[in-house]
TrEMBL record, chains A, B, C, D:
<keyword id="KW-0808">Transferase</keyword>
<dbReference type="Pfam" id="PF13230">
    <property type="entry name" value="GATase_4"/>
</dbReference>
<keyword id="KW-0315">Glutamine amidotransferase</keyword>
<dbReference type="InterPro" id="IPR017932">
    <property type="entry name" value="GATase_2_dom"/>
</dbReference>
<dbReference type="InterPro" id="IPR029055">
    <property type="entry name" value="Ntn_hydrolases_N"/>
</dbReference>
<dbReference type="InterPro" id="IPR026869">
    <property type="entry name" value="EgtC-like"/>
</dbReference>
<protein>
    <submittedName>
        <fullName>Class II glutamine amidotransferase</fullName>
    </submittedName>
</protein>
<dbReference type="InterPro" id="IPR052373">
    <property type="entry name" value="Gamma-glu_amide_hydrolase"/>
</dbReference>
<feature type="domain" description="Glutamine amidotransferase type-2">
    <location>
        <begin position="2"/>
        <end position="248"/>
    </location>
</feature>
<dbReference type="GO" id="GO:0016740">
    <property type="term" value="F:transferase activity"/>
</dbReference>
C-alpha cells in the first residue's frame, strides 16, 4: 500500500503538501506506530509542472523521510500542479525506475493498488505495447506498465476511455489465463493541464481516495489517505469514480470500465 | 530504537541470524504492523570476523529489507563471530558513516540507546579524544563517539573497565553542563576473540537484551529483542549486566559504572 | 568499454585481483589520466563461488574506487573462482540491475562489447526468451539479454554451442531488420566449476582479452586489459577464441559462430 | 582537482550551465579521454537561490553524468544565482556531506584546491570554531571547514576580510605545527545577493579561474575551467584575485591575505 498526494491550483511550494511537519505525505509515511498502516520506505518521487510542457521528475530509493535533498527541493520548488508518492513495495526491486511517478512526454502518473497474478500476465500485457511504448519501459512494476498501456490506448485523446480500456484489457488478459480477475486501482495523473484521479476496484476494496479544497478553493488536493493534523476538510471519493480537477474546480463522475454485475468477462462481448 | 543481533560459536552463514525469513533481524526490522515497534529503515550494517584480525564491514543506507546485496552476502559469508544492526535514526543524517557497526582495528561495536542532551556535550566529549582517535571520527553519532571514548579509555586492555569509565565520563560531562544525567546503553562489541555485551541504564528503562544458546550450545546469540518465530530459548539479560561469550560459554556479571544510589557524580571520587 | 577480470585457481582473497593498489581492476578503472582509456565509473560488481552452487553477488552503482564496502569485502572474501567488473555505460541507466556480473542459478556472466543497433532489435531478441527466462530479465542492457539468450539456447548443456547460437541469432535478427550485423563480444562466464571466456567480433575490432598464470600455475587470471604494475606474464588471446579454465589449466580453441567469409546470413540455413 | 561553475544574472534554467550537451559542467566532468584532465566522478552538487533567503541544495554521491534527477532538475529550475560543483576526491569518503556546495543560512560555498598537511591540522582548525559553527560541521573535508572558519571570522559582515583571515589562520596553524604552509584556494560563494570568487595560492599554482559575460552582458559565469565548445569569451582571472559580481557587473581586485614576500608568519604581527 503506497501513499500519494496530488495538487492543482494556485502555485505553492511543494513542501506544503510533501514535507510540512505534522500534516504532509512524508510525515504520514513514517508513522509506523499506527497498527493499521504500513511503512512506505521503498523509495519516493515527485513530478511537477513548471516552465516546460513535460514535468520535472525527482525520484530516489531512500525512504522519503531521510532524504535531505527532497526536503530542500520541496521547499524551493513552487508549482501549480504536482504529484508526490511514497512507495511500499509488495515485491520487486527498490530501484529508481520502479519509483512513482512515471513520466512520459507531458504526462505524469502514479498509482496505489494491485493486479492479481501480475507476474503471470506481465509478458502478455507488455506484448500489447507498440514498439514506441515498449522502448519506454524502464522498470518492472505493474504500475508503469498500466501507464504505458493507457498511453497505448489513447490517453492523449481521451483519458477516461483509455484508462477504462486498459483496465478491461488487464482483466481480460487475466481471465484468458484462468486467473482471478482482480484489479485495485487508485491513481492520479496529469497532462500538465488537468489533474485526473481514479478510485476503482473490481471488488469492494478500492484503495481509498480523498479530496479537499485548499487556499479558499483556489486549489485542490487529492490524497490516498487524509493527512492527520490539518484543517483541510477531507471528503472521501466513492469507489468507482473518475475525478477531474481544472480551473473550474473538482468534478467527480462514475467510472465503470466493466459492467459491475454480473461480471462475465469470458462471455462474448 | 535500533535493533541488533550478535553471534559467537561454530561458524554459520550470517543469513541464519541476519536474513532468514520469519525469524531474523531483517524480518524483525520491517514488522511495521506491530503497534509497539518502530521501523528500522535508516540503514544497516554487518561486521564479521574471518581470516584477518580486523573485521569485514558492510554498511549501507537503504533499509535492510530492500538490499539484495545484503541478502547475497549473508547467504555466502560464514563466520564464527559477527554483529548485525538495523538503524532507526532519532536524528542525524542517514549516511554510511553513521551506520553501525563501527570498526577500529580488530574491534567492532554497535549500540542501541541514547545519551540525554548529546548535542550539547558532543564537543566536550570529542575533545577528550587523543589525536589518534579523533582522526578516526567519521560520522556524527553518539554511538561512534562512545566507542572511540572506550578505546581511549583502554578498551584494548580492560573492556569492562574502559566502558564503565566511558559511561562515567559521559555522565560527569553532562552533569558539569547542568544537564540531566541519562545514559541508556545496550551494546555489543568484539575484539575478534570474545563477544561482549552490556545492558545498562541510569534510569529504569535499559533497552532490552536477550540471549539464547544455539546449535546445541555450540553457539550463542545476543539480540536487542527476541526473534519471534523461532525455537530458540530466549532469556532476558537483566539491566546492569556485562555479558562475555567465549569458547567456555556465556557469562553474566553485574555492571555498575556508577554507584546506583545516591548518584552524586560531582562529588570528588 | 567496460573492464573486467576473472580468476580460477587456488582460493585467494578477491582483493588480490579486485582492489590491490597498483595492479588491480579498481586501480585500473580510475586511471583517467591515460589518454587512451575511458573511465569506468558507472557501477561495478563481483560474483564469487563459495559454499553454495550459486554465486554470491555484490553490485552497486557507485564508482568502484569510492566504495568502501567493496574494499572490505574484497579483503575478507576468499574464493577459488570469481568474476569482477567495472562498468562504463554507453547509454542506459546506471542501476544495480544493469551492473555486471549477472547471475542465474549457478551461472555468472559479464561482458565487454556491443551490438550495433541493439535498441532496434531488443524487443525481437526478448521475444525469443521463454517465459521462464523472460521473467528473469531485470535490467535493460544488451549484456543481460545475451546471457539470458545463451541460457535459452542451452548454456547448461553445451556452453560454447549456446553462445555461438546466441551470437548467430543476434546477427540474424539484425540482418532481418536491415541493420548492420556487428557484434563485439568479449565475455567471461562460469557455472561454478569451469571458467569460460570468449573473445570475438564480426569485424576486426574484438575487445581485447589477456590471460596470465598465477601462483606458480595454480591459478589463472583472465582480464580485458592487463594490469600495469605487475609481474604477471600476460598473453593476448587472439580474436575468435573460446577459453576454458579447469583444474587441468587453460585451453584455447577457435570460436567461429559464423563462417567468416562470405557472411550470407540471409540465406536459408 | 574538482571543477565548478557559478552564475549570476538574468534568471536562466540551470541546465544552460550545468548539463547542456557539449559545453556544460557535466559534459566537461566526464571527458576522461583528455590526457590532462582528471575524472570528476566523486559526487556533485548544486546550490541555487529562489524565493527564499537560503539556497536550495541538491547533492549526491553518484557521478553527475549518470544522475537522471540532476538532469531533470537542471532543466526545470530557473535561477538568477547558482553554484554547481563536480567532485574529484583526493582522499576522504564519498558522502553527501562531503559534496560541495556547502550551505549555511543564506550562504553557499564551493571550492577547488588543497591545504598541505590538512589531516595534521584539522583538529586545531576545528577547535577555532565557536560551538555554533562546530555544531554545523557535517563532513570531514577541508573545504567545509574553511567555509565554517570564514563564517566564524565574519563572512556575514566583510566577506573578503573573513576569507583572508581564514587563509592566514590556516597558514599560521600549519606553520605552528612545523608543516609546509601551502594553501591553494579557488572558490565561489554567495550570500544570495552577490556572487564572490577567489583565485589564490601561496605558491605559483593557483587553481585556474575564468569568467565570461553571457546573455549580452546580463549575466556572468565563473568557472574553474572554460567549457570547450561554446561561444563564450572566457577570460582568465589572474592568481591573487577577489571577484565580485553584482547587478553592476563583474569586478576584480587584488587578494593578498599574506604579504607575498618574505613570508614570516611566525613573527609577531
Amino acid at each position: 500500500m503506497c501513499r500519494w498526494a496530488a495538487y492543482r491550483g494556485i502555485p505553492i511550494p511543494l513542501e506544503q503538501i510533501v514535507s510540512a511537519p505534522g500534516h504532509s505525505l512524508i510525515d504520514q509515511s513514517h508513522c509506523a506506530s499506527q497498527a493499521k498502516t504500513a511503512t512506505n520506505g521503498d523509495g519516493f518521487g515527485i513530478a511537477w509542472y513548471g516552465d516546460h510542457a513535460e514535468p520535472g521528475l525527482y525520484r530516489d530509493i531512500l525512504p522519503a523521510w531521510s532524504d535531505c535533498n527532497l526536503r530542500s527541493l520541496a521547499r524551493q520548488i513552487r508549482s501549480p500542479l504536482f504529484l508526490a508518492h511514497v512507495r511500499a513495495s509488495t515485491g520487486g526491486a527498490t530501484s529508481r525506475d520502479n519509483c512513482h511517478p512515471f513520466a512520459h512526454g507531458r504526462w505524469s502518473f502514479m498509482h496505489n493498488g494491485q493486479v492479481a497474478g501480475f507476474d503471470r500476465i506481465r509478458r502478455k500485457l507488455e506484448s500489447a505495447l507498440s514498439d514506441r511504448h515498449y522502448a519506454c519501459r524502464r522498470g518492472t512494476t505493474d504500475s508503469e506498465l498500466m501507464f504505458l498501456l493507457a498511453l497505448e490506448f489513447g490517453l492523449d485523446e481521451e483519458p477516461e476511455g483509455a484508462l477504462a480500456e486498459m483496465i478491461r484489457f488487464v482483466l481480460t488478459t487475466a481471465e484468458a489465463e484462468g486467473l482471478a480477475t482482480l484489479v485495485r486501482f487508485t491513481a492520479a495523473l496529469s497532462d500538465g493541464e488537468r489533474l485526473y484521479a481514479i478510485r476503482y476496484s473490481t471488488d469492494s476494496h478500492a484503495p481509498t481516495l480523498y479530496s479537499a479544497p485548499m487556499y479558499g478553493g483556489n486549489g485542490h488536493c487529492l490524497v490516498s489517505e487524509p493527512f492527520e493534523d490539518t484543517a483541510a476538510k477531507w471528503q472521501e471519493i466513492p469507489a468507482g469514480s473518475f475525478v477531474t480537477v481544472t480551473d473550474g474546480g473538482l468534478s467527480v463522475r462514475a467510472f465503470e470500465p466493466v459492467s459491475p454485475e454480473p461480471v462475465r468477462l469470458s462471455e462474448p462481448a
